[in-house]
Write a structure and sequence with these properties.
- This protein has 188 residues and is of the alpha+beta class.
- It has two domains: 48 residues, no CATH class; 129 residues, no CATH class.
- Helices cover 36% and strands 25% of the residues.
- The chain contains five helices and seven strands; from the N terminus they run E-E-H-H-E-E-H-E-E-E-H-H.
- The strands form two sheets. It has a five-stranded antiparallel sheet with strand order 4-3-5-6-7. The protein has a two-stranded antiparallel sheet with strand order 1-2.
- A hairpin with a 4-residue loop joins strand 6 and strand 7.
- The longest helix has 26 residues.
- The N and C termini lie far apart (45 Å).
- The model has no long low-confidence stretch (mean pLDDT 87).
Length: 188
């Protein structure tokens, strides 16, 4: 029986066979899980494993803020979220505001951990890293946009050029991010 009000949506995925990345462009974990489930039904065997790092993102981001030093190739941007590990679950957010490092250190000393941190990689890509190792609000900066502005053509050509430029930068960015988090943790 046909469905009268079926919902259609596009979800972009990027499969990088060279660096062994599978990236899902999804705003929610549920959409990402749905895509992974559909891929698992389509591919037998399904050779995808979740990514784990030696350092937890929350511990690493908290250390970067406490030391006021971002890892190599990264800079800390203005959006930050600190969350208490106690029962109160108190939250402090900096949104589009410069971070007062002394104030942040006081929050860290009182038991808060960084759960979201805005970063920029090589002055090319800005994003927000979460404590769940999710990369959110990924955006190319003017350096990448300028390279693509010279192109004109149909939507498919523009999409292909955008995708080519972004994936050429995303692979090294993801590698640098994993390195900043202590490298990939091998789970047996």
């Amino acid at each position: 029986m046909p469905r009268a009000f079926s919902i259609h949506r596009d979800t972009k995925i990027w499969i990088d066979t060279k660096n062994l990345w599978l990236v899902v462009d999804a705003a929610s974990a549920a959409t990402g899980d749905e895509v992974m489930g559909l891929l698992a039904k389509s591919l037998d065997p399904f050779p995808v494993l979740p990514l784990y790092t030696e350092l937890s993102p929350a511990a690493a981001m908290t250390a970067w803020l406490a030391e006021d030093e971002a890892p190599a190739n990264f800079s800390i941007d203005q959006d930050t979220e600190l969350r208490s590990t106690s029962e109160s679950r108190a939250v402090v957010r900096y949104v589009r505001q410069s971070i007062d490092i002394d104030e942040v250190r006081k929050h860290i000393e009182s038991g808060k951990q960084c759960t979201r941190l805005a970063l920029t990689w090589n002055d090319k890509i800005s994003f927000v890293l979460t404590d769940g190792l999710e990369v959110k609000r990924l955006a190319p900066l003017d350096v990448l946009k300028d390279q693509n502005d010279a192109l004109s053509g149909d939507d498919a050509e523009l999409f292909n050029s955008d995708m080519t430029l972004m994936t050429a930068e995303l692979a090294p960015m993801l590698n640098d991010l994993i390195e900043a988090l202590g490298g990939e943790k091998v789970v047996i």
